[in-house]
Amino acid sequence: MTLMTRRHALAATAALPLAATAASQVHASGEMLGAASPTFNRFVLGDFEVTALLGGTRTVPEPHKIFGLNASDEDFAEVSAANFIPTDKAQFFFTPTLVNTGTELVLFDTGLNPEGITGVLAAAGYSPDQIDTVVLTHMHGDHVGGLMGDGGETFTNARYVTGAVEHNYWTENPNDTFTGKVVPLNDKMTFVEDGTALIPGITPVAAFGHTPGHMGYMLDSGGQQLMLFADLANHYVWSLAYPDWEVSFDVQKDAAAESRRRVLSMLAADKTPFIGYHMPFPAMGYVETRGDGFHYVPSSYQMMLT
After folding, report:
1. pTM assigned to the model
2. How far apart are CA 37 and CA 32, in angstroms?
């Protein structure tokens, strides 16, 4: 047994601040790793397995030039302050969703580019050649951008599904995105109408206005429902809480507002959860009526209770 004398004890005590300082210096020398967030969120919906994929995120300046075009600067600032969000910038999220029905893998929208969607699919445990069906809710670039790249078609084994009204609109009003990303896949394209089941448990829901043929999709499995409402509401406050506020991206602004009110009212009445393509990731939540608009209730652990 080693005995510590009073002199040794005092010496050891005196050394403690030096040791703490050295430890602090070692700790402080560690590199800052930067902000991080999860890139996918997977849960069970009846017999389906649903994976929300963060295909990209970016900060966008001057959001009032995008949202609330018919709202005054004062109203926009007041609403933003009440919801603890700045008025000089906003964070955009891009959330394709993968549904495993048990018999096939169905991908809803493809993000901004092939690298983004293939990267997040890999993080979630999938490869693009496993995708059986790619559903396009509408033809904006942040939804069809991952279809094609310099290497050609991204989802080589997939068929493609979109709304007939949407495809007809862009055929008559083509842009570079449609011509370069969608047209080369026309021979593999199937067209659907509102209310006609794509496959058992997946049904398109017309939500026209954001684009003339914009569609959401209702998932229904094992007595559970969830709606993928795509770009019905582009922001959880400025579009969802204020459905009549005009959005620069909406092609038909009056129709978009009508669709928001109709679909959000249905989701609120039925207490149906949803994934919104541009909602804060993991992009899932519920909606309740509040005043003349709606209130976003982010999901917590509901989908973990199987």
Report:
1. 0.89
2. 15
- pLDDT tens per residue, range 134-190: 999 999 999 999 999 998 999 999 999 999 999 999 999 999 999 999 999 999 999
Domain-wise residue ranges, the chain: 37-304
Q: Please give, one letter per residue, the 3-state secondary structure of the chain.
A: CCCCCHHHHHHHHHHHHHHHHHHHHHHHCCCCCCCCCCCEEEEEECCEEEEEECCEEEEEECHHHCECCCCCHHHHHHHHHHCCCCCCEEEEEECCEEEECCCCEEEECCCCCHHHHHHHHHHHCCCHHHCCEEEECCCCHHHHCCCEECCEECCCCCEEEEEHHHHHHHHHCCCHHHHHHHHHHHHHEEEECCCCCCECCEEEEECCCCCCCCEEEEEEECCEEEEEEECCCCCCCCCCCCCCCCECCCCCHHHHHHHHHHHHHHHHHHCCCEEECCCCCCCEEEEEEECCEEEEEECCCHHHCC
Kind of pairing between the strands at 152-153 and 105-108: unpaired
Give 85-90 contacts, CB < 8 A, sequence gap 24+. 85/237, 87/63, 88/61, 88/62, 88/63, 89/59, 89/60, 89/61, 89/62, 89/63, 90/59, 90/60, 90/63, 90/66, 90/235
27-34 long-range contacts (CB < 8 A, ≥24 apart) are none
- Going by C-alpha positions, the residue among 186, 134, 136, 181 that lies closest to residue 155 is 134
pLDDT for 235-256, tens place per residue? 999 999 999 999 999 999 999 9
Q: How many CB atoms neighbour CB 186 within 10 A? A: 10
| Domain 37-304: CATH class, spelled out | alpha beta
